[in-house]
Amino acid sequence: MVRTPLTPWERQRGELFGALIRRARGDRSMVEVAAAAGVSAETLRKIETGRAPTPAFFTVAALAAALDLSMDELAAACAAEADPWQEPLSA
């Protein structure tokens, strides 16, 4: 299976998501949060640095739960700007 390359917007959104997760982690260690979410510290590191810009849904959900974040708020924060490379949805 060949993966379609990410658009610049998708990369930017991944970096934004990673920054949001990093900020929510605060003073907690990466290992502590990763363990609480049931993911590896390396996975969390990749997400926080934007190297994994499209994490799986259940990874996002687990991190949100471990960090006491709302999935709705995360989604809204990551979609704050319209995707300039995508056609708007018809009303």
How would the blueprint of this fold be written?
Elements: H1 8-25, H2 30-37, H3 41-49, H4 57-66, H5 71-78
Could you walk me through the main structural features you see in this protein, from its secondary elements to its overall organization?
The chain is globular. The chain contains five helices and no strands. The protein is 58% helix and 0% strand. The chain has helices at residues 8-25, 30-37, 41-49, 57-66, 71-78. It is mainly α.
What can be said about this structure in brief?
By secondary structure, the chain is mostly helical.
Portion in strands: under 5%
What proportion of the residues is helical, as a percent range? 55-70%
| SSE pattern | HHHHH
Distance between the termini: 33 Å
**Count the helices. How many?**
5
Counted beta strands: 0
Q: Please mark out the parts with pLDDT under 50 across 5 or more consecutive residues, or reply none.
A: 87-91
Largest beta-sheet characterization: none
Rg is: 14 Å
Q: Which structural traits does this protein have?
A:
91 residues, disordered C terminus, mainly alpha
